[in-house]
Amino acid sequence: GMGCSGDVVIAPDSSVWIGAGRDAGFGTFPHAHLIRFYPGPDTFGDSVILEDDYNDDYFLDYTDICFASMNKIYAGCYPRSEDRDTFLNPGIAIYEFPSGRRLKYVPMDGGEYCRDVILVGNNRVYVSVSKDIGDVSRTRYIYVFDTGSDKMIKRVDVGNVPHYMAYSPYKEKVYVQTGGDRHYITPYLPP
After folding, report:
1. What is the Cα Rg of the chain in Å?
2. Which pTM value belongs to this model?
3. Contact status, residue 29 vs residue 20, Cβ threshold 8 Å
């Protein structure tokens, strides 16, 4: 359970960051963090520690991260017990970058995992939430956040068990891989 370990994200300034989740089993990383990677010389640089404490008994285990801007990160996560046996409904943690200070945590219903988090345009973050087994009727949604207010503004029904997403700025569509089939949704744009 290293969460976003190995997740590679590109910042708006084209810098490359690799996610490293908390590793309670080995004690290597006491907190989740992002490590700067320099592709030219293939070396590592600075590390940004993310506040991952949730309460006395739980920490935030990350599944995916995206930059909303050069000073803000959205991270899909779920509160997980320190013994790693229990976890709660997933949510989005919003961080100031590069301080790693958590600005907000927004819980979401409808699944066990945040499968993917992507930036759509300059001001929307889409989050897919799903569950591997059980009641799939609760795992049909993409949550849309406004990055200016950091509020969830819409829940979109995309079908059975949404996983990965890709945004096409040319078609103005978000493509969502769901339950083995391909579906798409049109990005939500306010009137």
Report:
1. 16
2. 0.83
3. yes
Please enumerate in sequence order all residues whose Cβ is within 8 A of that of 46, keeping only pairs 6 or more positions apart, or say none: 35, 36, 98
Cα–Cα distance measured from residue 177 to residue 15, given in angstroms and rounded to the nearest whole number: 27
Q: Report CA-CA distances (Å) from 10 to 13, 39, 118, 167, 176.
A: 8, 12, 11, 15, 20
**Distance of alpha carbon 80 from alpha carbon 137, whole angstroms:** 23
Three state DSSP letters for 44-60: EEEEEECCCECCCCEEE
Phi, psi of 159 (to 5 degrees): 105, -165
pLDDT in tens, 21-77: 665 444 455 677 888 999 889 898 988 988 887 776 777 878 788 999 999 999 888
